[in-house]
Amino acid sequence: MTRFVGAIDQGTTSTRFMVFDHGGNIITSAQKEHQQIYPNPGWVEHDPMEIWRNTQEVIGGALARAALGPADLAAVGITNQRETTVVWHKKSGHPIYNAIVWQDTRVAPAVAEFAAPGGQDRYRARTGLPLATYFSGLKIRWILENVAGARAQAEAGDLLFGNIDTFLIWHLTGGPQGGVHVTDVTNASRTLLMNLNTLQWDREILQDFGIPIAMLPKIVSSSEVYGTARHPAVAGVAISGDLGDQQAALVGQACFKPGEAKNTYGTGCFMLMNTGEKAVLSNFGLLTTLAYQFGAKPACYALEGSIAITGALVQWIRDNLGLIEKSSDIEALARTVNDNGGAYFVPAFSGLYAPYWKGDARGVIAGLTRFANKGHLARAVLENRDQGRHALALDIKPADHVPRALGGDHDDVDFLVRLY
């Protein structure tokens, strides 16, 4: 009997389930958007239970479309929006607050507070990350300090934390009835809480942030059997792959050699370059992150340049300004003019990411005159998206120098990121 592999792709704006055959061909898929919640300026939230319901729906829908059942699946893997933070009660499985999305900037005061004694790079040597609103750790702290009773429950061992991968794996494998509480190294590396060298939670940082280690998931590799699904749609299927979305793209593009890089365009724009088994610290404001770890093999690292908003700008034009009815309409609207009429966007809705890491920056539409119309704005949106494709420029020496550089000359392999 032919068996297939299922993949959950839980992104910032939607959830998708796809089934692949042994040759990598798509057999079936289903996708559903979820609500973007904006309680205050700079705040971005998701309803984790809506994401869980959508995940169940797209799994069932995709399998039904191809007349497949659990017995047809050899395994299910997951890739997910990174840094988005969920804290839930382990007895009920219900979040105590909405998921705080990676784009959210509410922890900016905490970033300033913790940067005051040692600078924004206070934890970079251990985590590869600057203090920024982007990462999960300070979001956990915010929930513990601002949700009534949360800290007491966490210290009593009643609460669990996870990025979206952890939340879904826990529910798929039983939830309150024995769900597996794990995250892989790539997702753990986006929390500002994991030590790059030990691949374990850094107890000193946890103490600084006031986060009980008992609420954190076990850190595992990106490819191993974490548990068996108990949800009826995939009951008995092994859950055996977990990668943050950008790292999953790196693996999907087979960038397995040091110096190989990929760029992905979705909600944001992210370039990752494989640096092999060495964690290379950037001199240009890039992130040092885990690329992947396959089973018991050594972990591989990557350098990353990040732009928060690129494709999401099309969604913003659609939902917030109402200039188009669906995302695909923007192309036709942009073609009604010959150029952008002098208008351009800086979509710093969540601050500026690499290399600046300025959480207080905000979006700007500039160059407007009475001449400008909605076609010019649509054109500016698309041109901004295209700029994102070139903004993360590799400024490295020729390729034959890369192996030497990976041995210690970091200047030769760092990205020089030019934004806007």
Name the descriptors.
four-stranded antiparallel sheet; 18 strands; 420 residues; 27% helix; alpha+beta
Describe this structure in words.
Mean pLDDT is 87; it is low at 386-420. The chain is 27% helix and 23% strand. It has 13 helices and 18 strands. The radius of gyration is 21 Å and the shape is globular. Strand 1 (4-10) and strand 2 form a beta hairpin. It is of the alpha+beta class and 420 residues long. The protein has a six-stranded mixed sheet with strand order 3-2-1-5-12-11. Strands 13-14-16-15 form a four-stranded antiparallel sheet.
**Main sheet record:** 6 strands, mixed
pLDDT below 50 for ≥5 consecutive residues: which ranges?
386-420
The level of helicity is 25-40%
Strand order within the widest beta sheet: 3-2-1-5-12-11
SSE blueprint and pairings:
Blueprint: E1 4-10, E2 14-20, E3 26-33, E4 45-46, H1 48-65, E5 73-80, E6 85-89, E7 99-100, H2 108-118, H3 124-127, H4 137-146, H5 150-155, E8 159-163, H6 164-172, E9 182-184, H7 185-188, H8 203-209, E10 218-220, E11 223-228, E12 238-244, H9 245-252, E13 261-265, E14 269-276, E15 287-292, E16 300-307, H10 312-319, H11 329-334, E17 344-346, E18 364-366, H12 374-391, H13 402-406
Parallel strand pairs: 1-5, 5-12, 9-10
Antiparallel strand pairs: 1-2, 2-3, 4-7, 6-8, 11-12, 13-14, 14-16, 15-16, 17-18
A few lines on this structure:
The chain is an alpha+beta fold and 420 residues long. It has 13 helices and 18 strands. 27% of the residues lie in helices and 23% in strands.
